[in-house]
Amino acid sequence: MPRKTILAMVALLMLLCACGVGEQISAANADPKPKPEPNSYEAQDFTRLKGMKGFSDQALDMHFTLYQGYVKNTNLLGEELQKLAEQDRTKTPAYAELKRRFGWEFDGMRLHELYFGNLGGKEPLAPDSPLMKMIEDNFGSYDKWAADFKATGAMRGIGWVVLYEDPGSGRLVNTWINEHDLGHLAGCRPLLIMDVFEHAYIPDYGLRRGDYIQAFFDHIDWQAVEARLGK
Ligand SMILES: [Fe+2]
After folding, report:
1. How far is the CA of 229 from the centre of ligand 1 (A)?
2. Ligand 1 center to 32 CA (angstroms)
3. 61-68 contacts: CB < 8 A, separation 24 or more?
4. Please, which residues have CB less than 5 A from ligand 1, an ion?
5. How far apart are the first and last CA of the chain?
6. What is the DSSP letter of 156?
7. What is the CA radius of gyration of the chain?
8. Residue 121 Cα, ligand 1 centroid: separation in angstroms?
9. What is the mean pLDDT of residues 18-34?
10. CA torsion, points 30, 32, 38, 44, in degrees to nearest 10?
11. Confidence of residue 221 (pLDDT cuts 50, 70, 90)
């Protein structure tokens, strides 16, 4: 073999080796997880709730899918708003409408997380717990509070029932949230959330919303609710 050919092959071999080593070094330095986009949220997994009495797996699966849609659209709106801001198009109707829409999607996401997060319990609220004391101080008794919470949930319309803690005064308030974004009490902390959109109960209960509300009460995770109290 001519000397020039041998030298060319050696040079090519060295070049290939160098490239391979370079790739290995860059792969070793690479962050294995891509950095999250701004405003990106990940859907939480609530499949632990499946098998809960009074809630069919089919209805829960449908509800989880609806929740995932809020997460997806919250992220999508965040990205679209960021693009418009980068394009200096913040004075457009599109920017204004997407800004308004963001709260609806975000609250739909967050309220579902709080709702699923306060389900799956098996024990009633402990009589000597701090929350029970607060409920008795604010409403007179647990039964009076529960009657008011249930009555709020039985109101005509679609929305949410929220037991709020007002950190400033220490008061507890049962409140109706219309859709997802109207009626929140500014500065208050949501403790217990019940979904009374039709999709939450019609698959299993038809129009018997009261039966669904009772099933919800049978499965409140009071430890999760108490963990939301202000310290
Ligand atoms: Fe829902």
Report:
1. 23
2. 35
3. 62/199, 62/203, 63/112, 63/195, 63/199, 63/200, 66/112, 66/199, 67/43, 67/108, 67/109, 67/112, 67/113, 67/116, 68/43
4. 195, 197, 200
5. 83
6. S
7. 27
8. 19
9. 44
10. 180
11. very high
**Residue 5, both tokens:** 């050919």
Sign for the CA dihedral angle at 112, 114, 117, 122 comes to negative
CA 85 – CA 103 distance, rounded (Å): 17
How many CB atoms sit inside 10 A of residue 23's CB?
10
- Compute, in angstroms, the gap from residue 199 CA to the centroid of ligand 1: 6
Round to whole Å and give the CA distance between 180 and 198. 13
Note the helical H segments in 43-192.
Answer: 57-86, 93-117, 130-139, 142-153
User: Residue with structure tokens 């999508």?
Assistant: 76
DSSP state of 47: G
- List Cβ neighbours of 64 (8 Å cut-off, separation of 6 or more): 46, 47
What whole-number distance in Å separates Cα of residue 23 and Cα of residue 30? 10
Please check whether residue 220 is in contact with residue 194, taking contact to mean a CB–CB distance below 8 angstroms. no
Q: Residue 19 C-alpha to ligand 1 middle, in angstroms?
A: 54
Please check the confidence at residue 4 and state whether its pLDDT lies above 90.
no
What are the distances in angstroms from CA 128 to CA 122, 124, 146, 189? Answer: 17, 11, 17, 22
Interval between CA 127 and ligand 1 midpoint (Å): 30
The least confident of 23-37, 55-69, 160-174, 190-204 is 23-37
Distance from Cα 63 to the centre of ligand 1, integer Å: 6
